[in-house]
Amino acid sequence: MSIEGIQAAKEKPDGRDRRIALGIAIMAVAIALPFLDSLFRLNLGTKLIPIGIFIILALGLNVVVGFAGLLDLGYAAFFAIGAYTVAFLTSPSSELLRALGAPPMDFWLAMVISTGVAAIFGVILGAPTLRLRGDYLAIVTLGFGEIVPLVIRNTPQWTRGVQGLNPIGTPSVPGVTFGVATEPWYFLVIAIVVVSVVLTSRLRDSRVGRAWAAIREDQVAAASMGVNPVSTKLFAFAMGASFSGFAGAVWSSYLQFIDPGQFDFSVSIFVLVMIILGGMGNIWGVIAGGLILGSFDRILSDTISDILKGIGNITGIDALRQADVNRARSLILGTALVVLMLLRPEGLFPSARRRMELHAAEESEEEAARQRSEPYEAQR
C-alpha cells in the first residue's frame, strides 16, 4: 500500500467511532424531540413513549433471537409477568398486598423485583425446553406465550381477570412528578433505552456473547470447544426475559392500567418483526426497525387514514371516507415482511457478521447446485 493509502486508512474512522457518533446523534435528536414537540404542538409524547418501550422489548428479544439464534414466539409472556409483578407490588388494590397486610412497595424496588421474576420465569421456561431446536423450540415458546394471558384471565381473585388492575405505583424522583405530563415518562424511557443499549453491546462483545454466536452458527462445534449449549442458551433466555420484565414495569406504571388483552400473541410477533426488519444481531438495526414500525403503527397509520378520508370527502368516494389503516395493520405488516424476506432477508441494517454469514450460505448453496448440474451439462 502507498504512503497516501496508509495515511487515508489512518484518517478514516473505524466502525466503533462511527457507532459512537451515530449514538450521540440519535441521543441528541431524542433529547430535542420533547422541546420540538411543545414548540410546534405536534403531540408526539404519548406516541413516542410506547415506541421507546417496544424498542426496549426488541433489544431484549434480540439477545435471544439475534445473538443466540433461538426463535422465541412467546416473548410477550415475560412482558406480562413484569407488568403484573409491579402491579401486584405497588397497586393499592392488589389482593396480594392485602393478603400479606403490607403497604404498596416503592416503584424502583418493584421494578428490580419484576426484572428478577421475569428472568426466573425465563429460566423456568428454558430449563426443560432448550434441549429442543428450531421449530420445536418455537412451538414450546408459543405455547408459553398463550398460557400466561390465559392464567391471568382465569385467576380474577388475584389479577381481576379481564377487568384489569389499577391504579399502579409510579416512580418517585425528587423534583419530578410522574403523572399526566409526558416529558418525565419520555426521559425515563430514553434513559432505560440507553442502559439497554449499553448492556446489550457489552453482552455481545463479552465471552458469553461469543459463545452465543458460536452456538448460533454450529452448536456441535461450539460444544466440542468447551461451550455448554444448555447453560449458555439458558442465560440468553434469562437475559432476554429480564429486559422484558423492566419494560413491562414501566409500561404498566405509565398506563396505570393493565389487562391480559395487552399481552397477546400479536405483541410477540410485532417485536420479532422489528428485529427482522432492522437486522438481527445489530443493535442499531433493531432500534431502527423499532422506530420504523413503531412510527408507522402509532403515527403514520393515523396520518394516512386522515389523508385518505380527506380525499374521500373531496371526491365523494365512500370507501375512502371510511378508510382506517389500523384495520389493515396485520395485512400491511405481513406483506412488508414477505417483501423484505424476498428482497433483503438480512434486514435493512444487518450486522457485518450476519450479512457475511447469510451470503456465505447462499454462495455455498449456489456452488453446490452448480456442481450437481455439471455432470448433466457434460453429458449434453
Reconstruct the topology from this structure:
Layout: H1 3-11, H2 15-40, H3 45-67, H4 75-90, H5 95-100, H6 107-129, H7 134-153, H8 156-159, H9 183-205, H10 207-217, H11 219-224, H12 229-255, H13 265-278, H14 283-315, H15 318-321, H16 329-343, H17 352-379
Helix pairs in contact: 3-9, 3-12, 3-13, 3-14, 4-6, 4-7, 4-12, 6-12, 9-10, 10-12, 13-14
Essential attributes:
mainly alpha; 380 residues; single chain
Structural features, described:
- The chain is mainly α and 380 residues long.
- The protein contains 17 helices and no strands.
- The protein has helices at residues 3-11, 15-40, 45-67, 75-90, 95-100, 107-129, 134-153, 156-159, 183-205, 207-217, 219-224, 229-255, 265-278, 283-315, 318-321, 329-343, 352-379.
- The longest helix has 33 residues, at 283-315.
- The protein is globular and about 65 Å long.
- It starts with a helix and ends with a helix.
Q: Tell me the radius of gyration.
A: 23 Å
Query: Helix content range of the residues, please?
Result: over 70%
Straight-line distance between termini: 47 Å
Q: Low-confidence runs (pLDDT<50, min 5 residues)?
A: 1-13
Overall shape: it is globular
In what range is the share of β-strand residues?
Answer: under 5%
Structural class: mainly alpha
Mean pLDDT: 83
Q: Please tally the β strands and state the result.
A: 0
Order of helices and strands: HHHHHHHHHHHHHHHHH
Profile the largest sheet. Answer: none
Count of helical regions: 17
